[in-house]
Design a protein that fits this description.
alpha/beta; Signal recognition particle alu RNA binding heterodimer, srp9/1; four-stranded mixed β-sheet; elongated
Protein backbone atom coordinates (compact mmCIF):
# COMPACT_ATOMS: atom_id res chain seq x y z
CA UNK A 1 0.00 0.00 0.00
CA UNK A 2 1.43 3.45 -0.87
CA UNK A 3 2.20 5.79 2.00
CA UNK A 4 0.81 9.32 1.93
CA UNK A 5 2.94 11.93 3.69
CA UNK A 6 1.84 15.57 3.88
CA UNK A 7 4.61 17.97 2.87
CA UNK A 8 4.56 21.39 4.52
CA UNK A 9 6.33 24.26 2.73
CA UNK A 10 8.36 26.64 4.88
CA UNK A 11 10.69 29.53 4.19
CA UNK A 12 13.95 28.75 6.00
CA UNK A 13 12.38 27.40 9.20
CA UNK A 14 11.55 23.76 8.36
CA UNK A 15 13.84 22.30 11.03
CA UNK A 16 12.63 24.78 13.67
CA UNK A 17 8.98 24.07 12.81
CA UNK A 18 9.51 20.30 12.94
CA UNK A 19 11.09 20.57 16.41
CA UNK A 20 8.24 22.84 17.56
CA UNK A 21 5.46 20.57 16.31
CA UNK A 22 7.02 17.42 17.73
CA UNK A 23 7.21 19.07 21.16
CA UNK A 24 3.40 19.33 21.24
CA UNK A 25 2.16 15.75 21.27
CA UNK A 26 3.22 12.31 22.46
CA UNK A 27 4.25 9.88 19.72
CA UNK A 28 6.15 12.64 17.93
CA UNK A 29 9.78 12.92 16.86
CA UNK A 30 12.07 14.54 14.32
CA UNK A 31 13.60 12.10 11.85
CA UNK A 32 16.00 12.55 8.98
CA UNK A 33 17.14 15.97 7.79
CA UNK A 34 18.20 16.17 4.15
CA UNK A 35 20.60 18.93 3.14
CA UNK A 36 20.55 20.38 -0.36
CA UNK A 37 23.26 18.65 -2.42
CA UNK A 38 23.49 21.70 -4.71
CA UNK A 39 22.30 25.30 -4.74
CA UNK A 40 18.51 25.54 -5.05
CA UNK A 41 16.16 28.52 -5.50
CA UNK A 42 15.50 28.36 -1.74
CA UNK A 43 19.09 28.13 -0.51
CA UNK A 44 22.71 27.21 -1.05
CA UNK A 45 24.18 23.72 -1.11
CA UNK A 46 24.33 22.37 2.43
CA UNK A 47 21.22 24.22 3.65
CA UNK A 48 18.22 22.30 4.99
CA UNK A 49 16.08 20.98 2.16
CA UNK A 50 13.67 18.65 3.98
CA UNK A 51 13.03 17.41 7.50
CA UNK A 52 11.07 14.24 8.14
CA UNK A 53 9.05 14.25 11.33
CA UNK A 54 6.26 12.31 12.96
CA UNK A 55 3.45 14.07 14.79
CA UNK A 56 1.32 11.81 17.01
CA UNK A 57 2.21 8.85 14.78
CA UNK A 58 1.51 10.66 11.47
CA UNK A 59 4.53 11.16 9.18
CA UNK A 60 5.17 14.61 7.69
CA UNK A 61 7.86 16.25 5.61
CA UNK A 62 8.85 19.88 6.16
CA UNK A 63 10.35 21.46 3.04
CA UNK A 64 12.41 24.63 3.10
CA UNK A 65 11.13 25.78 -0.26
CA UNK A 66 11.53 29.54 0.04
CA UNK A 67 9.04 32.41 0.14
CA UNK A 68 6.91 31.46 -2.89
CA UNK A 69 4.01 29.78 -1.06
CA UNK A 70 2.17 30.46 2.20
CA UNK A 71 -0.28 28.37 4.22
CA UNK A 72 -4.00 29.09 4.02
CA UNK A 73 -7.06 27.94 5.92
CA UNK A 74 -7.88 25.63 3.00
CA UNK A 75 -5.71 23.06 4.82
CA UNK A 76 -5.78 22.58 8.58
CA UNK A 77 -4.88 19.90 11.07
CA UNK A 78 -7.42 18.72 13.64
CA UNK A 79 -6.31 17.65 17.10
CA UNK A 80 -8.94 15.71 19.03
CA UNK A 81 -8.41 16.48 22.72
CA UNK A 82 -9.54 14.28 25.59
CA UNK A 83 -10.15 17.08 28.09
CA UNK A 84 -10.24 20.83 28.61
CA UNK A 85 -6.71 20.91 30.02
CA UNK A 86 -5.39 19.49 26.74
CA UNK A 87 -7.42 22.01 24.72
CA UNK A 88 -6.14 24.85 26.90
CA UNK A 89 -2.49 23.71 26.67
CA UNK A 90 -2.46 23.24 22.91
CA UNK A 91 -4.43 26.43 22.25
CA UNK A 92 -2.12 28.54 24.40
CA UNK A 93 1.02 26.97 22.97
CA UNK A 94 -0.03 27.23 19.33
CA UNK A 95 -1.12 30.88 19.46
CA UNK A 96 1.98 31.95 21.42
CA UNK A 97 4.77 33.91 19.75
CA UNK A 98 2.77 35.28 16.83
CA UNK A 99 -0.05 32.76 16.45
CA UNK A 100 -3.61 33.95 16.06
CA UNK A 101 -6.90 32.80 17.58
CA UNK A 102 -9.77 32.17 15.22
CA UNK A 103 -13.42 31.19 15.57
CA UNK A 104 -14.88 27.79 16.45
CA UNK A 105 -11.70 26.14 17.71
CA UNK A 106 -9.56 27.27 14.75
CA UNK A 107 -6.24 29.04 15.12
CA UNK A 108 -3.08 29.81 13.18
CA UNK A 109 0.29 29.06 14.68
CA UNK A 110 3.35 31.31 14.41
CA UNK A 111 4.21 29.75 11.03
CA UNK A 112 0.75 30.48 9.61
CA UNK A 113 -0.43 26.84 9.68
CA UNK A 114 -4.09 26.39 10.62
CA UNK A 115 -5.21 24.02 13.37
CA UNK A 116 -8.55 22.96 14.82
CA UNK A 117 -8.29 22.20 18.53
CA UNK A 118 -11.46 20.28 19.38
CA UNK A 119 -12.80 17.92 22.03
CA UNK A 120 -12.71 14.27 20.94
CA UNK A 121 -16.42 14.04 21.72
CA UNK A 122 -17.40 16.88 19.35
CA UNK A 123 -18.57 14.62 16.53
CA UNK A 124 -20.91 12.87 18.95
CA UNK A 125 -22.33 16.17 20.19
CA UNK A 126 -22.88 17.55 16.68
CA UNK A 127 -23.89 14.33 14.96
CA UNK A 128 -25.83 12.54 17.65
CA UNK A 129 -29.37 11.26 17.30
CA UNK A 130 -31.01 14.43 18.68
CA UNK A 131 -31.04 17.17 16.01
CA UNK A 132 -32.29 19.82 18.44
CA UNK A 133 -29.41 19.10 20.85
CA UNK A 134 -26.96 19.13 17.93
CA UNK A 135 -28.28 22.52 16.80
CA UNK A 136 -27.90 23.96 20.31
CA UNK A 137 -24.35 22.62 20.44
CA UNK A 138 -23.49 24.11 17.05
CA UNK A 139 -24.92 27.48 18.08
CA UNK A 140 -22.78 27.42 21.23
CA UNK A 141 -19.68 26.42 19.24
CA UNK A 142 -20.22 29.28 16.77
CA UNK A 143 -19.93 31.77 19.65
CA UNK A 144 -16.54 30.47 20.82
CA UNK A 145 -12.92 30.85 19.85
CA UNK A 146 -11.18 28.30 22.10
CA UNK A 147 -13.72 25.53 22.62
CA UNK A 148 -15.16 24.97 26.07
CA UNK A 149 -16.14 21.32 26.60
CA UNK A 150 -18.40 22.05 29.59
CA UNK A 151 -20.31 24.72 27.68
CA UNK A 152 -20.72 22.46 24.65
CA UNK A 153 -22.03 19.63 26.86
CA UNK A 154 -24.36 22.06 28.63
CA UNK A 155 -25.71 23.29 25.29
CA UNK A 156 -26.24 19.71 24.12
CA UNK A 157 -28.22 18.93 27.27
CA UNK A 158 -30.26 22.13 27.06
CA UNK A 159 -28.51 23.99 29.86
CA UNK A 160 -27.64 26.93 27.68
CA UNK A 161 -25.84 29.84 29.31
CA UNK A 162 -23.14 32.17 28.08
CA UNK A 163 -20.08 29.97 28.61
CA UNK A 164 -18.23 31.25 25.56
CA UNK A 165 -14.48 31.72 25.96
CA UNK A 166 -12.21 34.12 24.19
Amino acid sequence: MPRVTPCLWFDGVAAEAARYYTSLLPGSHVGRTMLAPADTPSGPAGSVLTVEFTLAGQPFTALDGGPDFQFSEAVSFVIDCEDQAEIDRLWTTLIADGGEAGPCGWLKDRYGLSWQIVPAELDGLLGGPDPVAARRTMEALLGMQKLDIAALRAAYHGNVADHSRA
